[in-house]
Amino acid sequence: MEKYLSLLSRSPLFSGIAQGDIQSMLACLDGRVLSYSRGEPIFLEGEAPGLLGIVLTGAVQVVRDDYWGNRSVLTILEPGESFGEVFSCAALEALPVSVFALRDSLVLLLDCRRVLSTCSSACAFHSLLIRNLLQGLALKNLEFTRKIHCMSRKTTREKLLAYLMDQAKKQGSSEFVIPCDRQTLADYLGVERSAMSAELGKMKKAGLLDTKGSWFRLHLGEETQ
To answer: Where would I find the H helices in 101-192?
Structure first.
C-alpha cells in the first residue's frame, strides 16, 4: 500500500493530508486494496451501496444498462479518481449503476460510512476528509455537466469534437490519449460505433485530426470552433 500513498495524497479525497497520516487513516476507514481483471465487475446494479472506491492503477467505467441491454457509459475514472460515494451519500437502497474494470486495475475500497462519521479516535484530519468528499461531489456535478455538453450536440461529429476538445484542454495538449477504446467512447457519447468510426474517418480525411486507436492529434482551426 505504501507505494500508492503518493498517488492518494494527490487524489481529491485526501487533498491536504500528508502521506503518513493517510496511511494511519486507512485502517480507520477499513481500507482494502483489491485487484480486478479487465471487464470484471466492481459494483453491480442492484447491490447495496456503502463502499467508496479509489482507482490506484488501470481504469474503471461506470455504466447503466437499459431494459433491452443497451449500455450507456456514464463516466470513465483513472488513477486517483473515486467512485461510489454519490450513491452512499444519497442513502439509496440499491445501486442504479454498475462499475466495471476497463483495464486490469487495482482499487482501494473504503467504508463510506466511516468516511462520513468521525471515528472514536477523532483523527485530526477526518473533518478535512469530509470536506474533500463534499468538494469531490461538486466536481462530479461539473463532470456531468461536461458530458451533457457533449451529448447535447446534434451530430456525431459535433459530439466527437466537443469530447476531443475537452480532452485536449484537460490534458493541456492537442495530442493526447483518451482513457477508453472506441466502443466505450461510442457508448459514452450515445452513438453507434460504426457511425462514429465512419465520422472519424471523414474528419481525418478533412484534416481535422489524426488518430490511431486511443491516440488523437487535433488540428484546431475555424472548422473545429
So the answer is: 112-116, 126-151, 156-171, 182-189
Q: Answer yes or no: are the C-beta atoms of 156 and 195 closer than 8 Å.
A: yes
* Closest C-alpha to 59, from 107, 96, 1, 97: 107
**Identity at 50, one-letter amino acid code:** G
pLDDT, tens digit (0-9, with 9 covering 90-100), for 23-78:
888 888 889 999 999 999 999 999 999 999 999 999 999 999 887 888 888 889 99
Instruction: Output the CA angle 73-169-14, nearest 5 degrees.
Output: 70
CA distances from 109 to 56, 112, 115, 120 (A): 10, 9, 11, 21
Three-class secondary structure of residue 145 per DSSP = helix
pTM over 0.85: no
Distances 180 to 60, 102, 164 between C-alpha atoms, Å:
9, 8, 12
- Residues β-bridged to residue 64: 72
What does the alpha-carbon distance between residue 24 and residue 180 come to, in Å, rounded to a whole number?
A: 34
Select from 184, 183, 190 the least CA-distant residue to 66: 190
Q: Which residues pair with 52 in a beta bridge?
A: 110
Strands 98-101 and 60-65: antiparallel
